[in-house]
Every structure is written in structure tokens, then in C-alpha cells.
Design a protein that fits this description.
Blueprint lengths: L12 H10 L7 E3 L4 E3 L9 H7 L5 H9 L4 E11 L8 E2 L6 H6 L6 E11 L2 E12 L2 H9 L4 H8 L4 E9 L17 H4 L3 E9 L2 E9 L4 H28 L1
Antiparallel strand pairs: 1-2, 3-4, 3-5, 5-6, 6-9, 7-8, 8-9
Length: 250
Amino acid sequence: MHLGRFILPSVPSTLIASIIEGAMSSNSIYSFSAKTTSISYPWPADITGIERIALSAKGDLQRVLSAFFDRSISIATVYADTYHHLSSDSPAVPLSLPPDSAAIAAASPDLPIVQKRQVHLQCSGRVVCTATSQVRITSPRCAYLNLVEKYAIGQTFAQMQMAPSFELVSVGLGPVNGLPLDMTPSSDVPLDKQRQQLWRRYTLAIPGFECDILEVFPSRDVCLWNKLAGQQADGQQAVGRQTNRHQTIG
């Protein structure tokens, strides 16, 4: 999409510093001193170490999962419903994507763009996490990156080169509960499957880009996760054995 002479505003370095400081605020599960760093949260019983790593990820779950599985993690959009305001006193109306330059330029605290979306995080075609988000965009630059360039949430923070403030709201095992109605997952998942779930709700924010996110991991079966991760290693070993065989014959 051609935006003509539309120019993305720059971000002051002082603002970046304030956001980084905010990411380690008193509301964070992270704390540090001159020589120590700690993560403190009332985790549910039986949560494993690898689960705590995933649950404490601050907008970079794809990176964490990619490191664990040793392969790429892709995002597949399930739905994305986007709305904006034509005036400060008007109700939100649907916004067609990709938006035109006028809609992008109008994004502000008085005229926010709001998107309700759900995506699957996939590894080798298997869904390892379902993320349902409510995103409030009040910055033309963030709107351009997210809605025109199609950067996902984590990649938007990375492209902005800003560390988001992070608050872990809740963590649970089994069926998801205690959420706003419009964030509650679909009830078409059988109850026996819901009992295997691990989930968390958290918020991420930088000026102009605020996200309320629910992530549901469909299974806590560590053997299944390890099996999926091991497939890559097995494949690499097989290639290595075949290469060595050819070298020996040559």
C-alpha cells in the first residue's frame, strides 16, 4: 500500500528510557539489585521450570518457544476485528484493512484504533499456543507497523526498539476463568481437553500500543513437547549420518 508522503514520527530517547524503567516497576514480577535478578510470582502448584520460563516471557514467547523446539515458530491469524473512531464522541466502527493513510495518521488517545484478534503459534504445523488479544493503538507509527506492515505484537515492540511494561495478571491450570466476556475462549473445546491446559493473562504496553493478552497452551504433556522438539534433533542427526556415509564412500 502506497502512503505517499506519510512520515512516521520518531520516538524520543528519553521516552525509551522511561519505558525500560517502567518494565521493571513495582507491578512487575521482575526485581533486581546491583548484583541480583529475581522473578517472584505465586505460581500454581506443580508448575515446571520450562513452564515458568514461558509464562514469564515479556512479549517474546515466539523466541522462547523457538529456542526450546530449535525451529521456527510461525503465527497464523484466526481472526482480527479492527475498529476506529471517526470523532471523539462517536462510537467505534469497523476499519477495513489495510487502512488508508488518513486512518493511520488519525490514531491518537482521542481516536484510538482497537483490534480484537486471535492467533495460533505453530511449530511444524502443530498449535502450541493460542493467543487472544485486545490491542489499543494510539500512535500512527505503531498503527502503521501493526496494521499496514503486518508486524505481530512482539515484532512491533522489537521494531519500535522499546521494552514494554509487563504485568502478569493471572496464571491457571485447566479451564480458563475470571476473564472479561469478550476475552473468554470458545467453549467448543471439550472439557477433558480444557483440563490439560495451561494459561496466562498479561498486559504489555508502550506509549501508543497497549495489549491485553490471553495465552492458552493446549497441553502440559511434557513428553509431547519433548517429542516435537526431538524430531528436529533426530532429523539433523540423520542428515549428519548420511553426510558422513557419503564422505566415507568418497
